[in-house]
Amino acid sequence: MKDSQKAPLLNSAIDGGKKGGWKPAIYIISKLCFLRQTSSLRTFLHHCVRRPLILKSLTTDDSFFTKFFSAVVEVLERLAFFGITANLIIYLTNILQDTTVTAAKEINLWSGISTFLCLFGAFMADSYLGRYQTVLLSSLVYISGLLVITLSVNVIPFQFRKPVLLLALYLVAIGQGGHRPSVQALGADQFDEKTGEDRKSKSSFFNWWFFGVCGAAAAAALAIVNIQDHVGWTVGFGIAAIAMVLSLCVFLLGQRFYWCQPLKGSPLTLVAQVFVAAARKRNLKSAADDAPQHRLFTSEEAEPAAGTRRSVVLTHQWKFLNKAAEVDEEDAQAARKNDWRLCSVTQVEEVKLLLRLVPIWLSCFMYGVALAQGTTFFVKQCSNMDTHISSFRLSPASIRVSASMMILILVPIYDRILVPALRKMTGIPAGITPLKRIGVGIVVSIVALTVAALVESRRLKIAEEYGLSHLPNATVPMRVWWIVPQYVLFAVSDVFAFIGIQEFFYDQMPEGMRSLGSVASLTLIGVGNLLSSLIISVVHHFYPQWLDNNLNQAHLDYFYLLLAGLSSVWLILYLYLSKCFVYKQNEGTHL
């Protein structure tokens, strides 16, 4: 095809946002299939990344389609992710010959780093790239990692498979780091929080978002995991890669509907400016907290044309920061505002919002540790139990589908029955406050760990009765369904705590840092995975028999009780901090 013939197709693809969102997807698929036309592909990708997206007014239909496309993109991405991670501990121990403790620590470490990369991705989306560009670039990195994982199963010599696998997993981590927070924030951005109806809808959005994610997890646990065990790892990993390619295509299909927030600059720079300005004016005297001697620098002066930023009210918490917004003589006489001496009231209050969120974030760490057990030791427990359904042997990792199915049942019940009932009693649009919702979830996670300890104690007793304690690969004559209650309880915990954390941090985060709010729940899981890896190392050092590679003579029950005890201590801390927490306030005018 001549360049003159290719140009119209290229221009049509680039202008797909104006003429129809299906054209970019068709174009990029054709280019990925026919790599001979590399110059056109490079040009197209360049224009995709550089595509200007600005804040616009959305019609109801546009808003619906944006939420729909962002939800489908996330579901396909989660299908790819769970298709890799759900059975990863079995692949590491049975195929690559890792010990159970080593595999658990490696998975926890990788999971922790993956979620912290989400924090970096959210920062880049808010500050430099924008959400559209971040999703596009991260999707390409994500797909490359999944392809390497697929090829590593058979193409790479055995001695190099684990290093190559780990390299590919961290490529996936980088891709997920940019993709996941940006897509969710893009969907949540479509709500106009000035209307009561949209405030109610936003709470439902997080519920149904999690519903879709769990649907993807269920599909991965039932289909992809069993394909990996019964057909082959190459096919199973390949399906995950295809799901991610489809996610990218769907994302491009919906580009004409996307409403993207304008970039606000580096959030960390804005935070630093407030602290520096307050420090430079530390000797500034104010007559009273309610009536400072000096005029306050308002948002209208900082951003005269701003019409989309939510208003905030000046508070007296962390009063020393208020001086950053007071105009002293030096500020008044300056020809040009010095951002490191004078900040708007809104900027000061946004920094206070961040400071208020940190203690709550810290107090939820042990919840993340509890959840980390579902992808490691729970799965290994199942591998030593009877997983047969008639003559068919179910993959141990497929038992996790019980949690996903329970969430699929509970989310509609919670959203359509429980929330309206609670709303009538409390007058709160979401039924109960997010902090109360999180607290309920943490309590249920502690109950789940206790139940897990009781079930494991029963399994060990049966193994001893049948003389199987010294046989690491022996199947204990105990049905795997005994594991289901602990997975179900963790599902209930997720419906309350995990969704509540997502809603809470998104709602309470400053507007210009909403992607960071979306990723707060992910970083909690990341810290939980890292802490889990640390706790495993410490316990294995002092009590190696608890985490013996032979689970039939180990004592995972003691380990679960230890985690339940630690979680109970952190729950007390959470209850105290949540009681003291001050929610942000809004008014109709800018300050």
TrEMBL record:
It is found in: Membrane. GO terms for molecular function: transmembrane transporter activity. PROSITE patterns: PTR2_1 (PS01022). It holds the Pfam family PTR2. InterPro entries: MFS_trans_sf (IPR036259), POT_fam (IPR000109), PTR2_symporter_CS (IPR018456). GO terms for biological process: oligopeptide transport. Its main location: membrane. GO terms for cellular component: membrane. It is a multi-pass membrane protein. Keywords: Membrane, Transmembrane, Transmembrane helix. SUPFAM superfamilies: MFS general substrate transporter. Coiled coil: none annotated. The chain crosses the membrane at residues 79-96, 108-129, 135-156, 208-227, 233-254, 360-379, 399-417, 438-455, 480-501, 522-543, 558-577. It comes from the Eukaryota. Belongs to the major facilitator superfamily. Proton-dependent oligopeptide transporter (POT/PTR) (TC 2.A.17) family. PANTHER family: OLIGOPEPTIDE TRANSPORTER-RELATED. This is NPF family transporter. The lineage of its organism: Eukaryota, Viridiplantae, Streptophyta, Embryophyta, Tracheophyta.
